Amino acid sequence: MTAPTLPAPAALKVLIVEDDANVRLGCQQALELEDIAVEVASSAEQARRLVNAAASGGGGPAVVVTDIRLPGMDGMELLRALHAADPELPVLLMTGHGDVAMAVQAMKMGAHDFIEKPFSPDYLVEVVRRALDKRRLTLEVRELRDRLQNRQSIEARLVGGSPQMERVRRLILDLGNSAADVLIHGETGTGKELTARCLHEASPRRAGNFVAINCGGLPESLFDSEIFGHEAGSFTGAGKRRIGKVEHANGGTLFLDEIESMPMPVQIKFLRVLQERALERLGSNTMIPVDCRVVAATKVDLRALADRGQFRADLYYRLNVATLPLPSLRDRREDIPLLFEQFALQAALRHGRPVPQPDAERMARLMAYDWPGNVRELRNVADRCALGIDQGFPPFGDGATTGPRPLADAVAAFERALIADSLRRNGDSLARAAEELQIAKTTLHDKIRKHDL
Description:
453 residues, five-stranded parallel beta sheet
């Protein structure tokens, strides 16, 4: 049993374990009259099955109320078994007069409290409410701790202090605990697979497999076999059964990169898998249940493709439950120095070279460059700088200079790049570009003439 994630307060449930049907019913009715959700079991063995089944789905009882004397496994053994899986689970013991000494021993073993029979319904409700309050606080602390750990992990992997990257990290944390499928949209090199991995690691599925498929890198003839698997003898060369990528992702996350490249016939089959959460291997008529979260990534407008009949609209709407847009590097230029520093340190360590020293000329060129390859291109530039072969390649393609670049030239180059980028994104509209850059249209017009744009 794994530790449960935090449910909504109304979802906190009490499990009553009692072999006497009358006592069991009385406890259930007393709690339900106070709007406390209840589940019942007549034996410790049945209780363990209920707890294990609920835990596999990320849930489980918030409090267990059990009699000490039960047929088969007794309440003490049940306490040990439950605490072996979750030591913080409140377990209340119901005892007869002769079992008080045993109950005191159970308290030393970690039981939350004990109730001596006979007890009034009001007393049972009072003790259970205190246990529920404790459990609710425990789960809140546990979730906050997990979120803090996830945030620290995400900030270390998705580097950047810009508002755009802060929004990406916040979206990952918000979507992490949900079961919603996610569509990541971003240009080439913006870190779509890294973002998908962060989503996986921020989710309750982190212990499962993260399975990545590049839909543009597989021949159509192999697509069915790779994604859905096949049985032995299903086609020439299929000597043994093969588990497909979707089945391998069961309990984890399936990442579909370049989803726009998925062949249309495969889109139809994959839509069925998404709808039914089950698949058939090639050469088999048996439906296999699969429970995986699907994260798809694209660099194009899937809606536009669907409108032109080049992508199935029903698959688009099925995938587009939640959208996570990734900014281009030129839209978050303030992150370039920090990213370059990190990549340069990694490159120096990897290649056994000294760390490239900060250089005003180099940084000015990095800041002014348009970065069509985004973060991936910046990483490559950092590698070349660490190896000392950066000259002759973008953004240093015009050759090395013998001395530092004058500040005025560096500022002018940066200003020109910003204006050109703003005009491009605003369809060469002077009014919209001026509004975005927060300058007067006349000032922008003068700068456009100055920089020969």
